[in-house]
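subagent[fold] <- orchestrator: predict structure for attached chain, return tokens only, no commentary.
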Amino acid sequence: MINSNTSFGKLKEVIVGRELEIPKRIADFSFQHFYQENLNEPVYERLYSDGEEYYVNHEILVKRNKQLDRLEQLLEEFGIKVHRPDKLKKIIPFKTPHFKSELSSASNVRDLSLIYNICIIETPTFCQNRYFENVSLYRIYNNGFNGGKGGLWIRPPHTKLTKETMDLQHWNSKRDYKNFDREKYTMAIDGAQYLRIGVDVIVNINSYNHYLGHEWIKSFFPKTKFHIVHLTDNHIDGVITCLCPGVFLVNPLFPNIKESMPGKFKNWKYLIPEEDTKPFKLEKGMTSLDIQLASARGMDMNVLSLNEKTVMVNNRAKNVIKLLEDNNFEVIKVELDNCEIFGGGIGCSTLDLVRDDKLMDYTK
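subagent[fold] -> orchestrator:
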């Protein structure tokens, strides 16, 4: 039975992702815009000239999957039921009426699904090659849905992911969300743009596609208070996460984040670790075009709470570990390397299905 209202309730069931077992990666216009904050201009030029694809070092790929398998075992040792997506071992091309691409595996499983209350909401992706990614999770969702008895399963409309329908302005450009051409844009938003705190949900929106996608999701939850923020290009989980009622963990690159938070959360505690003096360094040969999809600081922040006092943290995030231990959290150190290359850390690689929590106001 699906039930998850927060990021900190006692975790009982979770999905751990599987990385694509094929070195080839797709890097079309939607990919390049989605990761624009982490791709530099020379990489853009090489992508265009090389046919919009690149490759990940096979040894790094094998190591990543072994570490995800170990993460599964570690969670099971804590009595948590773990589900895994179907494996994808060969290139599977697909075509929609508007574009063609190749299927990606369900690695960063938190991205394209929002688990909230008793609902599985498949969120409308921004990246073309991720269009059918959740198919690898349908075996799991079939069980969690349980014929409507254990929850609701909602899938988005077939979106039109073309250059003409995507808001390709820089994420920090000024937008008028009250007056824009709603017929021009398609909805596109990720589950990882939502921070669930019971009846309050903070959502990061920075494009017309995000706004339309959020309106669609919001329509299913008339009693929930959604708080819109504009913090970063897309995912909020590399910026801020809620560890327990009254406490946030914040990326050190956002020291003044409290000013941007909803009023009812301004008196909460904001834990901000010191910046790492030795951040991740992308070495030659890790990927064929030297591509890094995520920032080191965001990956240090990408944690998974097992309950209100126990947090899984990347073992190299020394400053985050020290800060949490100093504030009386129990830290479970997890080895998960090269998160910047794969675009996801511990939080992104997991999707909680069942937590022992309630749909309530945690600010009272």
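orchestrator: received. Logging for downstream: Helices lie at 29-34, 41-49, 58-77, 138-145, 208-218, 296-301, 318-326, 339-342. The chain has one domain: 10-356.
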